[in-house]
Amino acid sequence: MPVRIGEVARQAGVSARALRYYEEQGLLSSERTDSGQRIYPPSAVERVRLIQQLFTAGLPSRTILRLMPCIEAGQASPDVFELMAQERERITTAMAELAAARNALDRLIQIANHPTPEHCPALRDPAWAPYRAPDESAAGAVPVGASTAA
Length: 150
What we know:
The protein is mainly α. It has helices at 5-12, 16-24, 44-56, 61-73, 78-113, and strands at residues 3-4, 31-32, 38-40.
């Protein structure tokens, strides 16, 4: 018995909007009633759950579309395994880039919590003067923050 879009969405734990998106991407198909409502076969719920698992694994819809015939047939070709390996490498690269971004943000948080003249021009004397590390100061020059009183 055909299932309406709202029931498929409820059973699969997704929104009706997600189902329409899956249809736009060619991942799911429906028929229309005389009144234009989408109806799906009962197997649509299981298919949507599978699509969700593939999205959760980080696969884009274009890759999922390429995998679905093999999944439906229960047989994968070497091309499919290569495709999955490429997707894994893409995800690994993205993870490394995110880790680098997180580390840069951690450094900015550290600087914000513990500002130094090197990182905060307002702490320089005079304010906004170029920063000179103590070991870089010229002979006889007074390091930043040092007193000139003897």
